Amino acid sequence: MPNNLPPTNQVGKSLPRKESRSKVTGKAIYTHHLTLPGMLYGKIFRSTIAHGVIKSINTEEAKKIPGVHSVYTIEDVLKIIPEPYFGPAFLDQPILAHEKVRYVGEPVAVVLAEDPHIAEYATQFIVADYEELPAVYDEIEAMTSDAVVHDVLKPSGTFPDLKHLIGKKNTNIALDYHLKRGNVEDGFSKADFVIENTFRTQQVMHTPLEPMVSMAQATEDQITIYTASQSPSFVKLEIARLLGFRENQIQVKVPHLGGGFGAKLYIKLEALVVALSMLSKRPVKVSLSMEEQFYTITKHPTTFKIKSGVTKDGKIIARQCDVWWNGGAYADIGPRVTQKSGFTAAGPYDIDNVKIDSYALYTNRPPSGALRGFGIPQLVWAYESHIDIIARQLNLDPLAIRRKNILKEGRPQATGTLMQGAEIELVLERLAARMNWDAPIQKSQDKVKRGRGIGIGFKAVVAPTTSTALISLGADGSYILSMGTVDMGQGSDTAMAQIAAEVLGISAAEIKVSTPDTDITPYDMATLGSRSTFHMGHAVRLAALDLKNKQEDLAKEAGLGENYNGGIKEIFLKRFGMQAGTLVGFGSYIPSYTPPDKTDGSTTNATPFWMIGATGVELDVDTESGEVRIEKMINVVDCGNAINPKVVETQLSGAAIMQLGFTLFEKMNLDHGQVTNASFADYKIPGINDLPLIFENEIVQAYQQNAPYGAKGVGESATFGVSPAIANAIDDAVGVRIFELPITGQAILAGLQQQMNHSSKE
After folding, report:
1. pTM over 0.85, yes/no
2. Residues with Cβ < 8 Å from 505, sequence gap 6 or more?
3. Beta 213-218 vs 316-326: how paired, if at all?
4. How far apart (Å, rounded) are the C-alpha atoms in residues 67 and 312?
């Protein structure tokens, strides 16, 4: 942090998290705990085929089961909601399958009962008959496949760059984004080496330990929704649109959230429970099992072809990137991932000639959406593995080639947006120092080989988006902060209280933070993409400043003087004649933004800030089993000025561990579209024994000038470099290059066998 900045009292301190006591004592309330009088439980009957026309759905036997209240299909929903389609980018997802099913696991019918076990049992008596259609599962095949997932494209109107797709038919392309800078063909012709690789990532699931759950109570003119959601404001607006209601007829409440990672964004179960409550005229709750989450939202599988033109001394002068994003059966927010992350596909490097083509594809897999990193980890996996391949071919040190090409402050990124307030060089140098890169590692000579690797990536925060906040002051001097940001474990309630307290000159402990309730908390776009610290932080700071100004004005009106430093109680007493009343401060924030040019995809203002993250690892590879054991992992990030350093530390650890799982073993296995490992018994997430022996994090000294108290988002930064750092270290250890995630022991052994076969032929 610059030395000329004023000292802070609350910001920059590792204060205890505000909700920690209620969580560790078991008193925190989650949506799963909530019930309403007369409530019915819903259990979902799902499609067993990947693509087909619905010929009939027989629910009669299910209705006869004792205890069953009712069974509903889309035909019932259509009676109350004539256009039952929703989605943030495309109005493509029906509340229940309508006319067709598009993936195995798609909701087709719902049983309601007062006992959830009876409802679940009754789903076994529903019979659906389909006319099966050809299906497409691979993102490359989807580009030209005769199997078309959606008959016609229906953009929601939210995003202007999708308008040209309205009414388009016979295509699986939900968005194509193209960026051109310079002339790549000219660059390739001038290069000494042209190197091309293709990398792939797998389909994985968010696995929040609190599965998705929503509950609704509907009357003729009022809908109240209790839900595990990261985007209560969006839910309110989308439900109002679906029903043709005014916004004040929809109330969305979000208690504590047990993890999200992007899974609980936009509409998931909310439209379904609203429709069921309207049909049954009873409160309805739908709670998914862990297995059902695998059929609801996942992370985009990708194929990434990257081609670079390089000079003899390692300068990259041209780069072409083709990225295909497997969006599954429904677009969700995939088109935003395709564009907003796609334009960084060339990496954090200064390259004069760049061409990027990024495609969002419909397939007959479970839908893909936002997952911690918003597409960036898939990209960094490719371009940071690719740069190590280049270094090895040119006999250059991996750190040296990065130093030669890294974007520097004030230089334009591929879009033309200048890199400002992004400490890429500092992050790279601190990682090198923490890894002691200049000193050679001790490489064993027996069956266990040691290697090391690094990876660095960056991300542009999604823009433009809006955040608003309210802070109220009671006559007894107590404060309540109301905002739509959802604390799902990232510590946002604590950070926002610290920002407000800094402005008001009080302790963060004095501020109560209300849980989101759209009747009370003002609009916030969503809790996603590490945007909250910056966007909501600004809104909270402005709300606190507004309240402080009103408090000072009230003191003047009460004749207490301009520099009054007395108690708040006296202000209210002097002004109102009694110790009663409320003062409210309001703040809103939206950053500037310039949409990409339609001809070349460029923009001078793509994002208000950049997130930077790098990872270094040392690991051992057992050449007999292919087993990988990570001995050391170092994560270094630029998050500006950390509001709460200890919370940031836990964010970094959590992000790195999550990406570690995606790197080494997590993968959804599909057989003709059917997920075959949809349980924790078969789908393995990292456990304590999978963690590196040495596991360290560092926040570089930085200050984002346009941010609230110099702070910016950090929840995703430690995911960026994990996968390529591990792959690069494996290559360093045993000379095996992996091109597809997850990195398995079998893949390493296959690579070693290829080496042996090649050596024997020589």
Report:
1. yes
2. 9
3. unpaired
4. 75
Look at residue 562 in the predicted model and tell me its pLDDT. 63
| One-letter amino acid of 552 | E
Q: Where are the alpha helices (DSSP H) in 627-744?
A: 645-664, 722-734
- Provide the pLDDT for residue 563: 61
C-alpha–C-alpha distance, residues 29 and 40, integer Å:
20
Q: Where in the chain are all domains bearing CATH 3.30.365.10?
A: 20-28+465-589, 298-462+597-761
Of residues 215, 222, 287, 219, the one with CA closest to residue 253: 215
Question: Mean pLDDT of residues grouped by 10 in the chain (762 residues)?
Answer: 63 95 95 97 98 98 98 98 97 98 98 98 98 98 98 90 90 97 98 98 96 97 97 98 97 97 97 98 98 97 98 98 98 95 97 98 98 97 98 98 97 96 97 96 87 98 95 94 97 98 96 97 96 98 96 84 70 82 95 94 96 98 96 98 97 98 98 96 95 97 96 97 98 98 97 88 69
List the CATH code of the domain at 298-462+597-761.
3.30.365.10
Rg, C-alpha atoms of the chain:
27
Angle CA 598–604–610, to nearest 5: 115
What confidence score (pLDDT) does residue 753 get?
95
Q: Which CATH architecture has domain 34-135+209-259+263-293?
A: Alpha-Beta Complex (3.90)
**What is the C-alpha separation between 283 and 223, in angstroms, rounded?**
10
Active-site residue flag, 423: no
Instruction: Please enumerate in sequence order all residues whose Cβ is within 8 A of that of 241, keeping only pairs 6 or more positions apart, or say none.
Output: none
Provide the CA 471 distance to its chain's centre, in angstroms: 28
3-state SS, residue 479:
strand
> Which entry of 270, 423, 649, 716 is annotated as an active-site residue?
716
Q: Omega before 255 cis (within 30°)? A: no
Q: List, by residue range, all CATH 3.90.1170.50 domains of the chain.
A: 34-135+209-259+263-293
Domain 20-28+465-589 coded CATH 3.30.365.10: yes
What integer pLDDT is reported at residue 2 of this predicted model?
A: 46
Q: From the CB of residue 580, how many other CB atoms can be counted at a distance below 10 Å?
A: 11
The β-bridge partners of 636 are 614, 698
- CA 431 vs. chain centroid, Å, equals 25
What's the helix, strand, coil split of the chain in %, to 5? Answer: 30, 25, 45
Q: Cβ neighbours of residue 563 under 8 Å, at least 6 residues apart?
A: none
SS3 697: strand
SS (H, E, C) 508-553: HHHEEECCCECCCCCCECCCCCCCHHHHHHHHHHHHHHHHHHHHHH
Tokens standing for 602? 């460029």
Helix residue spans in 223-324 (DSSP H): 232-243, 270-280, 290-293
First to last CA, the chain: 58
> Which token pair is 278?
């309207």
By C-alpha distance, which of 222, 297, 225, 312 is closest to 263?
Answer: 297
How far apart, in whole angstroms, are the C-alpha atoms of residue 454 and residue 444? 20
SS3 300: coil
- The tokens of 320 are what? 């072409």
Query: What SS3 class is residue 349?
Result: strand
